[in-house]
Structure formats: structure tokens, C-alpha cells
Amino acid sequence: MKTIQVQAPGLLTTVQDLGRLGFGPIGVSPSGAADPISLRVGNRLVGNKEGAAGLEMMLLGGTFVFPQGAIVALTGSDFGATLDDVRVNLGASVQARPGQTLRLGSTNSGARCYLCVQGGIAVKPFLGSASTHILSGLGGFEGRPLRKGDVLRIGRSSKRFRSRKIAAQVSERLYARKVLRVTPGPQTDWFSEASLRSFYAGTYRVGEQSNRMGLRLEGAAISQRGSREMITEGVSLGAIQVPAGGSPIILFVDQQTTGGYAKIANVISADLHRVGQLRPREELRFEQVTFDQARTLLIEQEKLLSSRELILE
Fold this sequence. Notes:
By secondary structure, this protein is α+β, with helices and mostly antiparallel strands. The protein contains five helices and 23 strands. The strands form five sheets. Strands 7-6-9-4-1-12-11 form a seven-stranded antiparallel β-sheet, with no helix packed on it. Strands 14-21-18-19-16-15-22 form a seven-stranded mixed β-barrel. Strands 2-3-10-5-8 form a five-stranded antiparallel β-sheet, covered by helices on one side. The longest helix has 15 residues, at 291-305. The protein starts with a strand and ends with a strand.
């Protein structure tokens, strides 16, 4: 079986797939890739099913050796990768020969880069998923980020190498927007008109303490009408909570599954991958859309992802 040897793990490199959906009622968050579209596209580039497990790197990439060779692709953000000192293009399939070394540096664009390898990363599933949940120490490779000296197994595959790349115009359509589109939250009416105007007109900055559980935003504080308190209830991926201090928090892939703070809005499904590429100190704004518009945008995105124009051969 082919393997990947970890010479340097990077800042926070974990095994991720598309997550373990459906376990929220028993308190298990979905985990999975913070930018699922990049993982899906990367898997298509190397001939995998879209949900195959890959490596997610955050802000600083790792160094990996392929003793038996491999077919790989990098997607998401540009980490300045090289294969034996030869530049590796983002969004293209590459054949690594036996013994070659892939090195990634710090990000030149967004927050996360994905390494997909033909056959996928072979780890024991937990609740039907290979994704790593760091806080609980479950899933992925021993339930933790990678360390120097780790050896990962690659799943079996007999497919031959085919040169593939993402069409530039399609990549632009998927990642160009800097404004996150949201639908109204279940407690929108708890906030005054002035607070809602401030929320949608203002610019927020991603806080330094943001992580896969949630992105803490810095900017104009949002206040509620009166002094209401709510009973803890289930929360959805992308929900934007406003705690007592008034600074919004976007709940993300390793989120808690319940919360007791009012939710002013929810990031639409078609924009969740953009949340995964937000870096600390990066600025963002919000734009409200209707539920019908959110559904239409997701359908259009899925059509684009399944279209022949996505991958060039």
C-alpha cells in the first residue's frame, strides 16, 4: 500500500472529508472540510469520489514525502507548493514520482489549502466519516493534527494519471465574492432596526481567536431590544450568534450543536466554503438574501460543480 510520510506537519494539518452529517441531535458536530468545495474539486482532479478524505492545512502547509509515488492535487488557497523544488500549480493534477517531496509554505491568499491524493487518505471511519474533530480527539488520524514522523496510508486505486486542471473562469465564479450572503436568523426580530442596519452596512474583521468552532468578528457591537433571555436550542452550521457583548460569532464546522444566544442571521449554504477561507484580521461584510434566493444560488452552484466546464483535460 502507498503511503505519505510527514516530514513537517505545518500549523494545523488534519484529515478531513465532507463530514459526519445527521448526528447533531446527539451532540456531534459535522466537522469535515472547512472549504468543502475545494476538497470536492481536488478529489475530482485526481479521479476520486468527491467525498474522499484529504489533508486540510491552515495558514502554513507541511512537507510530505511519497515513497511509492502518488497522483495528487492542491486546491483552495495558494501555499506556494513545490515538488522537489519545482513549482506545483494550484488546481491541477500532478504525478509525484517515488521518493519525491512536496513542500508547502505559508498562505499567499486565503486560509486553507487541501492536498488530495488518488485513492484518498485511508483512516478508520468514526460515525461514517474520516473527518477529524480535534476537541474530542475523534476521527481522522488518531483524532489529532498531524505530527512529524506520522505515516499515512493511501487507499488503493488502479487509475492511470490524467492531466486535469480547474477552469480559471469557474474558479473565479466560486471564490471571487468578498461579501457573505445570509438569510434572516430565527431571532432577527429581537434586534432593533438600527442594529440590523449597522450589521448589514458595517465591515467586520475576523478575530485572532477564530477557529474551526467559530469565527469571532470584530466591529460594531449589535444590541438587542430589551433584555430578553432564551432557552438553549439547536443551532445550524453558519448561524451567526450575538452574545451579550454584541460581537457576532459565525458558528462553523466543529461548532457546538446547541446555543443560548440570539441568532441574527445564517450564512447561506452556497457561501459556507468562503467562510473556510477567511483568515484572521481579514475584513468581510454581509448581504441579506431571501430563502428562495439562497436555494436558487445553491442549485446554481451545484450545477456548476457538476458541469463539464469545471475540469479541463
